[in-house]
Amino acid sequence: QLVESGGGLVQPGGSLRLSCATSGFRLRYSAIGWFRQAPGKGRERVSCLSGDDGSTRYADSVKGRFTTSRDIPKNVVYLQMNDLKPEDTGTYYCARDRGRSCPVEDDIRGPGTQVTVSS
Question: Is 1 within 8 Å of 23 (Cβ atoms)?
Fold first, then answer.
């Protein structure tokens, strides 16, 4: 199971930290991806954290601004989002596909959390 939290309304340039609480599988050996979807647009891969070695990948649109990490004892994956822009607005969700490597498909996903960047 995957459950996101931490979304909200933030002004451009602000920060948010999303959390993905996981259960029912071994986070240490699972790749976890963050995705987002804006109204009228398709799904966009945001980041991936590998279950092989903990390495990370990011979409070009968020590189240098977003960071994904995990707390294995707490079974939580985070997405720290800095310098947010209006185009970052959307529903963010974490997902996995039972694999250990990136990229992941969103076969198993959480309900999502809304992020709105607006002044």
Answer: yes
